[in-house]
Amino acid sequence: MDDPDNRISVLCLGPKGSGKTTLLKKIQNAEGIDYTYSPVPTIGTNIYDVPYINKQGKKQVLSIREVGGEMAPLWSNYYEGVEKVIFVVDTSNLCQISSAAVMLYTLLAEPKLKKAKFILVLSKMDAAYRQMRNEALLMLQYTRLCNELPNAPVLLEASPLTDEGLDILKPYLTETKRVTVPVPALK
Ligand SMILES: Nc1nc2c(ncn2[C@@H]2O[C@H](COP(=O)(O)OP(=O)(O)OP(=O)(O)O)[C@@H](O)[C@H]2O)c(=O)[nH]1
Ligand SMILES: [Mg+2]
């Protein structure tokens, strides 16, 4: 029988089209992802189970639930028991970054997610027309979050297309201790 102690409950949220499904498919099935598939918005939720062996050699599973951006008004139904939150922001969508910031602050202030560890993923870092990292961080007020919040998110730049950041994401998710957030220098 499935032992809940062996599962880490992860919630993956972010505006629609920010790249959640693509990222999670890549984490779940690093070799076999089909890039010819036609991406469809997630209406409802997807669950991605990612098995791994922990530092003590015990089999565990990252149970990652994506809730589509279209479902944002219903995200709050999925906060119970969540240990980690992956919040995905599309750096190639200038119009969306500010609204993503508001969504992120709302999640960080949510009492049910007080104990959850947040990972802020700047996605689509391969796109030529993306925002530069520091501009995106300014728009997200990331430095301020790090200075003012005890549960400020760990930052990760990623692209499932080029594999950037993927090797770091899994350890972030399986790490039980709080990862120290390096406050980036913004010019
Ligand atoms: N260039 C680039 N495109 C990406 C990347 N990740 C996702 N995309 C594209 O962005 C679009 C949306 O990706 P999804 O993964 O479906 O986005 P989502 O966050 O799951 O969207 P919802 O389910 O609607 O909330 C698709 O056309 C993807 O191919 C990336 O790293 N780089
Ligand atoms: Mg999706």
Automatic annotation (TrEMBL):
<keyword id="KW-0547">Nucleotide-binding</keyword>
<dbReference type="GO" id="GO:0048731">
    <property type="term" value="P:system development"/>
</dbReference>
<dbReference type="GO" id="GO:0046872">
    <property type="term" value="F:metal ion binding"/>
</dbReference>
<dbReference type="GO" id="GO:0005525">
    <property type="term" value="F:GTP binding"/>
</dbReference>
<feature type="binding site">
    <location>
        <position position="69"/>
    </location>
    <ligand>
        <name>GTP</name>
    </ligand>
</feature>
<protein>
    <submittedName>
        <fullName>(African queen) hypothetical protein</fullName>
    </submittedName>
</protein>
<dbReference type="GO" id="GO:0051649">
    <property type="term" value="P:establishment of localization in cell"/>
</dbReference>
<feature type="binding site">
    <location>
        <position position="42"/>
    </location>
    <ligand>
        <name>Mg(2+)</name>
    </ligand>
</feature>
<feature type="binding site">
    <location>
        <position position="21"/>
    </location>
    <ligand>
        <name>Mg(2+)</name>
    </ligand>
</feature>
<keyword id="KW-0460">Magnesium</keyword>
<dbReference type="GO" id="GO:0003924">
    <property type="term" value="F:GTPase activity"/>
</dbReference>
<dbReference type="InterPro" id="IPR027417">
    <property type="entry name" value="P-loop_NTPase"/>
</dbReference>
<dbReference type="Pfam" id="PF00025">
    <property type="entry name" value="Arf"/>
</dbReference>
<feature type="binding site">
    <location>
        <begin position="14"/>
        <end position="21"/>
    </location>
    <ligand>
        <name>GTP</name>
    </ligand>
</feature>
<keyword id="KW-0479">Metal-binding</keyword>
<dbReference type="InterPro" id="IPR006689">
    <property type="entry name" value="Small_GTPase_ARF/SAR"/>
</dbReference>
<dbReference type="InterPro" id="IPR005225">
    <property type="entry name" value="Small_GTP-bd"/>
</dbReference>
<keyword id="KW-0342">GTP-binding</keyword>
<dbReference type="GO" id="GO:0016192">
    <property type="term" value="P:vesicle-mediated transport"/>
</dbReference>
